[in-house]
Predict the structure of Protein GrpE.
Amino acid sequence: MKFKNIFKNTSNMAAENTEIDQKIDDATIENNANEEQVVTEELSVEEQLTRDLTQEKDKFLRLFAEFENYKRRTTKERIELFKTANQEVLLAMLPVLDDFDRAMTEISKSEDEVMTKGVELIHEKLKSTLVTKGLEVVDVKAGDAFDADFAEAITQIPASSDKMKGKIVDVLEKGYKLGDKIIRFPKVVIGQ
């Protein structure tokens, strides 16, 4: 009977071992599944981080490009401002220069050569000072074709010949530009 009990105990133990082995196998399979899920989650986390990094790089590049455009634009505006900083003062001086030109025409008719020479020197000094500040005369003369981008037509008169139709007949007031920008258009009469 002892033998029977041992055999029974051994059979029970074998059954228990099989049951334990089954539980171990189940646990191993479950553990492997959990590890695969963790690996999948890790990959998705890595993918998510990679995606986030790519988005942040894109944002950074766009922001950097926008900042570079801003710097370029403000630099250009600053250069333009420096070029035209004297514009108001020069515009205020133009009527004085016009009066000076008319005075020179009348003074040159006088017989006093010393006074004419003195006023002419002052006139040239004023013009050269304004030229050093960037003021230039818009080159328009009688006989040139009229261009509305560079001159202002005050009136039209009948042309003396067919060649003068649509052309400048007379310049009433000089035009001036500061750098590339016309600050006062020449006033002209054109033939029709």
Notes: Residues 23 and 70 are 69 Å apart (CA to CA).
